[in-house]
Write a structure and sequence with these properties.
Elements (H helix, E strand, L loop, with lengths): L1 H9 L7 H11 L10 H28 L7 H10 L6 H17 L6 H5 L3 H21 L1
Helix pairs in contact: 3-4, 4-5
Length: 142
């Protein structure tokens, strides 16, 4: 019983967003199918997912450390999956990794505040000098 409390306390901050997991469940098991997925079953699924991620991450970390790498790479994950008997997942993982890499290449880069302002650097410099001048005047008066 005490072990269970320690386990729960240690993993309280390790979870997946319930809404996201529910969305995935709903896509796989649509409401129109007539089947329901109980909330306690969803919570158990989340715990299983967290445990799976922890297992794979730990194994991948061990593999990376043996190679004296400080960063876990995709090949460490795929080797961990294979070593732990989940080799059937490797093709799908590689496909997802490729898709993610493509999405990162194609996503719009965030604009800097300078780009967002639509003003030239010289105009922004002039505005800043005006503000500094106003602040100096206000400070000198009061």
């Amino acid at each position: 019983m005490a072990d269970k409390c320690i386990f729960e306390t240690a993993n309280d901050d390790l979870s997946l967003p319930k809404a996201t997991v529910q969305k995935i469940i709903s896509e796989i098991l649509p409401h129109s199918s007539g089947h329901a997925f109980a909330k306690d079953a969803r919570d158990l699924l989340i715990e299983c997912c967290v445990e799976f991620i922890t297992l794979i991450s730990s194994e991948a970390n061990d593999i990376a450390e043996k190679e004296t790498k400080k960063t876990i790479a995709c090949e460490h994950i795929t080797k961990a999956l294979t070593d732990l008997g989940f080799q059937d997942y490797v093709p799908e993982v590689l496909l997802a990794a490729g898709d993610h890499k493509e999405q990162m290449k194609n996503r719009e880069k965030k604009q800097s505040k300078l780009e967002q302002s639509g003003l030239s650097e010289a105009e922004l410099q002039r505005q800043q000098e005006e503000l500094f001048g106003a602040a100096r005047t206000k400070y000198a008066q009061g």
